[in-house]
Design a protein that fits this description.
heterodimer, A: 221 residues, Rossmann fold, Arc Repressor Mutant, subunit A, 4-stranded antiparallel sheet, 14 strands, 26% strand, B: 455 residues, alpha+beta, Beta-Lactamase, 8 helices
Amino acid sequence: MKFLLVEDNLELANAVCARMAMDGHIVDHAGKIGDAIAFSETGDYDLILLDIMLPDGDGRSFLKQHREQKQDTPVIVLTARSQVSDRISMLDLGADDYVTKPFDHEELQARCRAVLRRQAGKAQTVLQLGDVSFDPVAGLLTVAGSARNLRNRELRLLELLINAPGQIFPKHKLVDRLFSYDEDVSENAVEVYIARLRKHLEGSELKISTHRGLGYRLDHG
Amino acid sequence: MDEQVKVSGSLRHRLAVSLIGGAAVLSVVLYGVVRAYAAQIAQQGQDSILAASVTSILDAAVLREGRVEVDFPYASFSMLTTPADDRVFYAIYRDETLLSGYKDLPLPSVGEGGGQQSHSDVYVGVPVRMSTASRTLLGTNVKTRITVSVAQTQDALSDTLNGISRNVASVGVGFFVLVVLLSFWATSITIAPLKRLTSSVTRRGPQDLSPVAKPVPTEMAPLVASLNRLMARLNQSLTQSEDFIAEAAHRVRTPLATVRSHAETTLQRVEQDENRQALRAMIRAIDESSRAAGQLLDHAMISFRADQLERQELDLVELVQELVLRLTPVAELKDIDLSLQIDGPVPLLGDPILLQNAIRNLIDNALKYSPSESVIAVCVRRDPGATVEVRDQGPGFPEDEIDDLALRFSRGHNAEGTIGSGLGLTIAQDVAVAHGGSLTLSNLQEGGACVIFSV
């Protein structure tokens, strides 16, 4: 996925870019509305993440202009305002969704996914590995021609593993990615989801192997 | 809103009282002037008749062989006949001697000029009007002076005067009554622009701080100008504080977002357990403070809006549908199903911003306390009243605290592991109460919490 991040705070932008890169997304960063317009005119983005308070104006004016030009790239607003009236006005202006700063990255990911899912007909990134194809946006796993529906956590787990086949993921990293920080879960909770994924992947060329004391790995063939 | 205003008198009363008082004084003055003028005219009439009578008697006096003869013409007294049968007295003197008439009729001293003289006097106990004139008769070697006085009582005159007085008095009273009516009318006309201004200011909505645009009389212009300036200042300070809150939120939340994103990214790279613990604690603290800040701002905004509720027509179902759609990605993160149960639209008069915030807090709570892979049921009902019911499969409310949970900053003892500010239920309750409804908390028999939000 290719994202455009419009955010004037360089630190935050770097952190978001780094985090997005970990999920395998390409992120271009614009610090001003002027740059954002230039980027959005030249690049073909799947999604725009837009801050509201920018040095050369209000992010909402960019949003308005963007929509008036009939560009249908979905926009998620990153806002520091918590007032409901602001949120509503942003949705009225054509934003597809918003997250309030400081945001949970998993929530941002989930919102991106939900917004992208709504954009039917858009070119989608389907991962193909052996006889398994996986559409992370639609949450669709196809094993040897038969489709299987994954629940959200199973989907996120598979997404992690399938993006880096052959790499060992320690349990605690998987916990960080699957559960929110206010949930007190033991690392063993991951085992449940690994077991379910194994079941979904039954009969395919993909296997999830356990490495005692180290973690899990997706093996191909 | 019943503000105490110190009241000192009433413009309407003051205006009416001064108009009526002026009318009363004018009526009395009118009565006095007309009556005095009428008396003067009537007196002049009587005087001229008396003078004519005196002249006719004087003319009849002749000096014959040293003797004075007066042959009264009949008209001399008949001209003095009045409908009131006034009595007539006369006296004729030759020099100082009474020739004929009433000798004790008080006589004024008549000057040598011989002109007519009229004056008022009292004779036999009644007021009379008397006219006196004298004439010098010349005969052979004789020169004598004849003085004639004719007096008449004033019964007819006072009858006439009383008649006139009565008429003038009724005209005066009529004038007074008319002016009183006119003064009420004039008062209403004068007060009307003030009333119009009052109602146009009173009728406007709580958010309407626009200046008064309707034309007003000159005298009210300074007041209205001050009012407009005051509203402009109020509007400015409201806008400023809204901008200030937005700016403050931006200043606080953007660095928090930076720290949180860095912490999350770092957490992915760090292997050592104690560092991981520290980073997780950091993220939790950031979430806690940002949530508290958000809820406090929301709570302040809701208190403000609930005080001056702006109701508009809306469909509760549509509003809840939007919310559920928006919260679905968050629910999916925990594999929680949000199931929406509706049967037809639920039209409602209310503030959509408040209602949305309140219901969002309820669903947020359910999401926070629900276990993974559970179901949260959101039902919107029209009967018996517009209600939104949120049921989850979480631990439920602690039975002994269920009545206090909607209090500000109150949290259940089983909520310690969960991030929260203790304001969510307070906000929901405040919004329900502002719409004339209530918030009911209960636990389901099969486990889980149930919140009924009715408006």
